[in-house]
């Protein structure tokens, strides 16, 4: 399953939030989306998963136009994990993961043994089977995100969209979360805040700046001091880390600019 | 082939047990509520009289009661108690649905003014004969339209930038509710004729005094239809509680579904208010108590709310009849005395989610 975005623009009232964005995610690829706050990362993702309706441009899933798909069909092909979400009403972990089965259900259809099995497997894969019966609101932030990943797994969609999934998480859970997503080997498009995490996990990276695509390419191609200075306004030093083999970004604050 | 997981089985068992217990409780409550009153009647007689009116049973049951008793039970007390069942069931189900729709644990048809909207429209019909072209359904239909209008107004007022903020929701609900109550009062005060005027008190606090068999059919059908619709859509309701975006990405056709929910809530509230006046706090309290019992899954919440709401109103009405007998209290006084403190407790318990707007 691949995702293709062609010439996507979106505005609220007169304000252009994103302008002629093109990107593609190939089967099994993990693609990162980076950019400063307000650069349009979430807006772009919301257009792709159809919470927002673009002014112009097209989004294709395996060549099919997303705008033509019924809501349910789209949910069977594309799952979304947003920033930490809280529910005003409490559900058990199993209830929430079971919701991932709803796009596969007809109106009067009851949960089947197959559904229980899929939910069980999803919970096992995120390492939360033991917590299946506990209530969602009592979980830590990291566990909540893993529950939402399990829900996306139960959805059995081939494409996973992550909107800053590691926000609010401790570093340990950030890495755990990204390792988990990487191991799933799904086609994945993720907006990421942390440049080192993006460089470490992504196969390719797109850089957004003020609603436009500023650059794209492999982590090595994108993580360049001049580019990061242009987009984020920070000075950096970038080296290929000997252990990870990936670009490692060190930020240089003004206080040591004299060095 | 795997079996259902143990925690899940335990919950299903618990749920079935609760359903059975509440059904038995409802039958028992109906029996006791019919027995109680100025003329005491034995429980066996209550059901003998009831069955003697069922087709297929007449002739089988020996008449051990006099016609007076028969009249009191069948024509006065039964319709009233059953109306209580329908009203309590409907209001609880409407409360469950409106809480899912607004994704807010403080939402309730009464607090958000939906009931007062129905009251205002109903008083127009009764006192001025408005909407006469709807015929015998003028009252129900106009009450429905009143509810619908208020739902629409409150939802528009409460949304800022696509989000429903709790404080705005409650404040706009209260504002609209006060306006509608004022309009109801105004209409009642300006009423052209004395007879046939049910007091403003009736429309604001509710009462089951006017119960007749004829008034039962339509509300009962609507409660059954509304509950069935919501039960069929339980997955979408669950998804909606996770947030609008989550619901969309789980395949819920949100725009259509939200409209349907508004119509169903307005229909339930409107028809019920047209037969019982605006009874408060049932739709707020019952769903919460039920969620504490069986969790938030609507497949469980809806049927349990329906039963518990019915039982609650039946007993509230018994209190309303008996506390100051032979005078009657408006039933809304009883529900408000229970519901007010509950609402305050809920406000304090949920205080943390106020800023979040969820």
TrEMBL record, chain A:
**What are the protein's GO molecular function terms?**
ATP binding
Domain ABC transporter: from-to ranges: 3-235
Check the record and name the SMART domains matching this protein.
AAA
UniProt KW keywords:
ATP-binding, Nucleotide-binding
Pfam families named among the record's database cross-references:
ABC_tran (PF00005)
Record protein name field: ABC transporter ATP-binding protein
Natural source organism: Paenibacillus profundus
Automatic annotation (TrEMBL), chain B:
Q: How does it sit in the membrane?
A: Multi-pass membrane protein
Localization in the cell = Cell membrane
Where on the tree of life does the source sit, at the highest rank?
Answer: Bacteria
| Predominant location category | membrane
Keywords, A to Z, come to: Cell membrane, Membrane, Transmembrane, Transmembrane helix, Transport
Residue ranges crossing the lipid bilayer per the database entry: 81-98, 110-131, 137-157, 169-193, 213-232, 263-289, 301-323, 329-347
Q: Report whether Oxidoreductase shows up as a keyword of the record.
A: no
Family note: Belongs to the binding-protein-dependent transport system permease family. FecCD subfamily.
Q: Could you identify this protein by its name?
A: Iron ABC transporter permease
Q: Taxonomy-wise, where does this protein's organism fall, top ranks first?
A: Bacteria, Bacillati, Bacillota, Bacilli, Bacillales
